[in-house]
Amino acid sequence: MKPASFEYLRPESVAEAVATLDLYGGTARILAGGQSLVPMLGMRLMRPGAVIDINGLGEELGRIEARGSETTIGALVRYSEAETSPVIAERLPLLGTAIRHIGDRQVRNRGTLGGAIAQSDPTGEVALVALTLGATVLVTGPGGERELAADGFFVGSYANTLGPEEMITGVRFGVVPSRSAFFERGRKHNDFAVLSLAVVATPESDGTWHDVRIGMGGMNDTPVLARAAAERLEGARWDEAALAEAATLALRDADPPEDVRASAEYRAHLLPIHLGRLLAGLAKEPRHG
Q1: What does the alpha-carbon distance between residue 71 and residue 257 come to, in Å, rounded to a whole number?
Q2: 18 backbone φψ class: left, alpha, beta (φ>0; ψ -120 to 50)
Q3: Where are any strands of DSSP class E within 204-289?
Q4: Is 51 in contact with 31 (CB distance < 8 Å)?
Q5: Distance between CA atoms of 263 and 244, rounded to whole angstroms?
Q6: For 226-274, what is each residue's pLDDT tens digit?
Q7: How many angstroms separate the CA atoms of 108 and 121, rounded?
Q8: What CATH number should be reported for the domain whose range is 7-53?
């Protein structure tokens, strides 16, 4: 099947792209990496009035910037660039690790971080990391610029609070905990995740752990935080009993869906097992300094 007809436009600036979105009254769509949009166009699951190709806006949207305690990643930064970035490796190792689980090399060479956030896939790695690290989504629209907390940005399966006449320009991260771990399980290589987990925390010299955040993908119609599990581990020593209890508590914040990849019962069965293992592995990492 071929896409339905649409106007193809290449703006020369973010301002022009936003003006075009406004002109089409919410019926236009942004084209960046095209890893999600192009297949939907081909299957006619999406029939926009216009496709706005922003690939020429790398000067505005293609940078990775470290300023003080903040790290900002432009919406057009490709997965492959973030995957090999020394800045990401030093400041956001969880993101670098998660990106290696995305698709294959061809997908990572084209896909963009802004596109991943906009797609809001409930099993998406970038969305999960953004939520877990408490990132801020940078948005520009006809009314100017907005900053949206990742915690609250995702509101449903492939749905978010981005307005139809707005575009994502970047994602900003603040200071992140010193330790991180990521896990993903799918039916097969390159398939959508049945379950994905992201954990960050900071160990203290007295044996306690702080700044604990646990993100879960594939366990709801959005990526979600395992708040009860994190509260159990915050300020505590991570002994075997604490980790086992936290892994079970994660189910309180999960509402696993049932789809062609797995049943809700199977996802619920996997969650405490793999979260317990991930936490145990993180706790065993040697302390430095």
Answers
A1: 33
A2: alpha
A3: 209-217, 224-225
A4: yes
A5: 23
A6: 999 999 999 999 999 999 999 999 999 999 999 999 999 999 999 999 9
A7: 16
A8: 3.30.43.10
Q: Which residues of 5-43 are buried (b: 16+ CB within 10 A; e: fewer)?
A: ebeebebeebeebbebbbebeeebbbbbbbbbbeebbee
User: pLDDT tens across 172-214, in order?
Assistant: 999 999 999 999 999 877 778 999 999 999 999 999 999 999 9
φ, ψ (nearest 5 deg) of residue 72? -115, 130
Taking the C-alpha atoms of residue 73 and residue 71, their distance in angstroms, rounded to an integer, is 7
**What is 179-284's CATH number?**
3.30.390.50
Question: Thinking of the domain 60-173, which architecture would CATH place it in?
Answer: 2-Layer Sandwich (3.30)
Residue ranges matching CATH 3.30.465.10 in the chain: 60-173
- The pair of structure tokens assigned to 86 is 């020394």
* pTM, two decimal places: 0.95
